Structures are given as C-alpha cells and as structure tokens.
From TrEMBL:
<dbReference type="InterPro" id="IPR013024">
    <property type="entry name" value="GGCT-like"/>
</dbReference>
<keyword id="KW-0456">Lyase</keyword>
<feature type="binding site">
    <location>
        <begin position="29"/>
        <end position="34"/>
    </location>
    <ligand>
        <name>substrate</name>
    </ligand>
</feature>
<dbReference type="Pfam" id="PF13772">
    <property type="entry name" value="AIG2_2"/>
</dbReference>
<feature type="active site" description="Proton acceptor">
    <location>
        <position position="105"/>
    </location>
</feature>
<feature type="binding site">
    <location>
        <position position="145"/>
    </location>
    <ligand>
        <name>substrate</name>
    </ligand>
</feature>
<dbReference type="GO" id="GO:0003839">
    <property type="term" value="F:gamma-glutamylcyclotransferase activity"/>
</dbReference>
<dbReference type="InterPro" id="IPR036568">
    <property type="entry name" value="GGCT-like_sf"/>
</dbReference>
<protein>
    <recommendedName>
        <fullName>gamma-glutamylcyclotransferase</fullName>
        <ecNumber>4.3.2.9</ecNumber>
    </recommendedName>
</protein>
<dbReference type="InterPro" id="IPR017939">
    <property type="entry name" value="G-Glutamylcylcotransferase"/>
</dbReference>
Length: 193
C-alpha cells in the first residue's frame, strides 16, 4: 500500500506524520477553535461524537493570519510553547469525514498530537490542524468567532479557568454579519468581552 505523507513539521513536540490515505474506521480529532461547538463541527462532519475534554501540552492557543473573510478576523491556531498547554475537545469521527474536515480546515495543515484526557488515562493520538497563514498585523479575532469558541468551551465543560482566559481575549470589534453564525444560532459576540 502506498502512502502520501502530509509534510511533517520539524519542531519539538508530540507530533506524528499524517497519512492522507483513507482507511475504514474512526479517528480522534482535537478541536481548540470554533469546532469546540458541537453545532459547528457537525455542520460538515455529522459523524462527530464527543469523546472527552483533553489537554494538549507543549502548545498554546494563538490567533493569526490576515483578516479572515469567513470570520472577519484572525483565526485560532496552535503553536509550540514548551511549558504551556491548552484545552480542547476530542471528537471521535468516521474516517470518511476526513476530506470534509480537511476542506473546512483548508487554511491549516493537519498534524497528529498526543492529547491527555481530562479524566486521566493514557494520551490519545488525535488529528488537529496548525494554521498555514503567517501571522498578520492584527491578531484579534472577531467577536462572533470568539463567541463561538467560548460557547463551545462552555458547552463542552472545559475548565472554568481556561474559559475565563478565552473570555479575556481582545477581539477586533467587527460589527457586520458573519454568515456562519446564522447556521449556528449564534449571537454577535454575546459571551466575548
């Protein structure tokens, strides 16, 4: 069987190369941005089932990229940061959803990371995504995007201290419409400061 490898990042951490072949079965996906919200992940990936809350060590949450036209602001990514960590959701998904997840995350490169389940136990190998865009000047997300992330964090019962950290993130005060929020039943930055 021939495998096409997605380029592997050369950094320290718990990453593994990802194969682009499709196999029967399921995989774990670690979400840290808008896909924390069940309604968001299931828009394009109906097989997603909540597995557990997880902690990714050696990384931190950042917002980067030029102004994103879908969300009207910078978007979430993760970067390596020794001694740091972030929280997210581990979704169990059918491998058949990998193409739709890759399409949804087209501004990102897929990697695999080892995530610690909140309830203890062995680390779980998960697919996640790292932003391709080089950091832009304005690294602030729109209030609508931040609202979706915070709503997902609350819905998934991430640790309160981490939710408070998300609520303290400065947004760009974008006042226009964000089309995807209508599909999610989302407000316009209600939970974002």
């Amino acid at each position: 069987m021939k495998y096409n490898l997605i380029p592997k990042f050369l950094c320290v951490g718990q990453k593994h190369a990802i194969h682009s072949h499709q196999m029967a079965g399921e995989f774990n996906y670690f979400a840290f941005g808008s896909n924390l919200l069940k309604e968001r992940i299931r828009l394009n990936n109906p097989s997603a089932v909540f597995k557990t809350v997880g902690k990714l060590q050696g990384y931190k949450l950042e917002f980067s990229g030029p102004d994103n036209t879908r969300w009207h602001g910078a978007v979430a990514t993760i970067t390596e940061a020794i001694g740091d960590s972030l929280w997210g959701v581990i979704w169990q998904m059918d491998r058949a959803d990998i193409p739709s997840l890759d399409l949804q995350e087209r501004g990102y490169d897929p990697i695999e990371v080892d995530v610690l389940p909140q309830d203890g136990g062995e680390p779980l190998q998960c697919r996640t995504y790292v932003g391709k865009a080089k950091p832009g000047d304005d690294k602030r997300p729109s209030p609508q995007y931040l609202d979706v992330i915070i709503r997902g964090a609350i819905q998934s019962k991430l640790p309160q201290e981490y939710i408070n950290k998300l609520k303290s993130i400065e947004h760009n005060n974008y006042k226009g419409n964000v089309a995807i929020t209508a599909e999610l039943g989302s407000g316009n930055g209600i939970t974002a400061k």
